[in-house]
């Protein structure tokens, strides 16, 4: 077993399972996707640490791979099925999209930084995952053409209500993400029911805010 395979197993056994993630399909996906391939070469040794890993392109907006345990817990709460049409908003280099693609039917992943999309495309080609498409679009805009979605996953926090994404949910669809409107930040699930949207708190979590989902600065007199 390679050092990265060992680190991947330790991540699942030491971080994810102790956080009550018991869904075998999610655990198998985390074991199957080589997280070290989705980070810069200089950071491969940190790929399996319990941190939000900065993978920003030089000169670009700050972008992160969020903690694996936060992603896993959100996916478990969302009860992803093998037929779900999923939008992964703010996918960065595509690690989250690859994990979701292992357990869902169809995945559309958005990222506004072209260099990160290039990296994501190469990484998923190596994994032979044919059920993912990448689209250059801001996280807040989603990609309505491939919707409506059974599930939308925010790969980062939001400081605003992502109304445009809500509108891309299918009836009965779910959105999971970390909501940072108040403290402490919490992972939440939003469910589309008829013409309404219900919210449910899942667990406390703090992850970096996605570009475009920041709170507008307050005007000071």
Can you put this structure into words, describing what you see?
- The chain has a single domain, classed as Rossmann fold, CATH 3.40.50.150.
- It is 27% helix and 26% strand.
- It contains 6 helices and 9 strands, in the order ααββαβαβαββαβββ.
- The strands form 2 sheets. The protein has a 7-stranded mixed sheet with strand order 5-4-3-6-7-8-9, with helices on one face. The protein has a two-stranded antiparallel ribbon with strand order 1-2.
- Helix 1 (3-16) packs across helix 3.
Q: Major sheet, described briefly?
A: 7 strands, mixed
Structural class of the secondary structure composition?
alpha/beta
Count of individual helical segments: 6
Quote the distance from N terminus to C terminus.
62 Å
Shape: globular
List SSEs in N-to-C order.
Answer: HHEEHEHEHEEHEEE
**Strand portion:** 25-35%
What is the tally of beta strands? Answer: 9
CATH superfamily, by name, is Vaccinia Virus protein VP39
CATH class value:
Alpha Beta
List the strand order in the largest sheet.
5-4-3-6-7-8-9
CATH architecture: 3-Layer(aba) Sandwich
Query: Could you tell me the radius of gyration in angstroms?
Result: 16 Å
Tell me the domain tally.
1
Helix content: 25-40%
Mean pLDDT: 94
CATH fold name, please? Rossmann fold
The quaternary state of the protein chains shown equals single chain
Runs in which pLDDT lies below 50 for 5 or more consecutive residues are none
